[in-house]
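Amidohydrolase
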Amino acid sequence: MLNIVDEAKSLQNEIVSWRRELHQIPEVGLETPQTAAYVAAKLGEMGIAYKTNVGGHGVVGLIKGQGEGKTIALRADMDGLAIKEETGLPFASTNGNMHACGHDAHTAMLLGAAKILNAHRDQLKGNVKLIFQPGEEGPGGAKPMIDDGVLENPKVEAVLGLHIGTIFKEIGTGQIGVSYGNLMACLDQFSIKIKGKGCHGAMPDTGVDPIVITGQVLSALQTIVSREVKPVNPAVVTIGKIHGGRAYNIIPDEVELEGTVRSIKQDEREKIARRLEEIVASITRGMRGDYEFNYIFGYPPLVNDGQFTKSFVETAQKIVGEKDIIEIPYPTMGGEDMAFFLERVPGTFFFLGGGNEAKNIVYPHHNAKFDVDEDVFWRGTALLAQGAIDWLEKAGE
């Protein structure tokens, strides 16, 4: 029997080294050529077959086991954020971007899992596909990779991924958080243009005031969540941007608004999108104005497969022990495009606690001082590797 814990611990220093090298070259969005080249080089050194430029700068490795078998995918995102780093770390980024969400660690931990699995490929009862994805922070790299066939040849029948950090405060350092169903919200965007008729501010009767109309629209939109969504299902409608007018004494022609919708249920997501436009249309036209409305369905709600998660928990008990497995009680309203993979194949997305107050690693995600505790990296690698081995074992029975 393989001792994945010992193997992952033996790779700890190498995983940390990979993470630090990646941390110095953060790239934003779908444009991650340098990061992709780094990953491809490491896979090549390991003797793992890979493809580049999958759905853009995505990299996909394939470890083939002995004989025929099913295929599980392990996914890591590898993009950073347009944030100037202020951590003071000796390996801090100097290119104006920053790995402020832990994707450098995700990539390094998956490289570690790849090294373990490839060393024991003759014992795998199937295949492991390694998905290194750009663009998770936006505009989203999962769907382009799926559209480019990442889940085919060989066909992927399960998927596993992780996120490090402090998104869920109840998950302590080195602990893992799991959810058996809805874990993260959709990530949608909408824009509204409220059209009126400009006029002199002292003569409002000669025009149609889009600012007054906007006030009514803002109040009404908030009733969607408070009065039209089931109270036990969290949802958010947020207006984050308003622009209208250029002078204190002029009623403008139009006001522009932008906002986001978050929902953990697909049917409620679609209902909110529909009701947004219906309310805007009714109010603007009832007040002699008009409107333009655009809704962008972004990342869908992230929903873990209950049965797969149950099996993964059994795997995790081998790595971290039962006391360090925390069931996440409530979903987060943040979004993650791992959801696109989980829409198509069963799997789970788990969280690895990466904060540590004793080391002053306390800053939140997307903060210029964000960091993670490197001492937990071996755990992420071991969980990914053992998760793949166990799933293939059961799938081959």
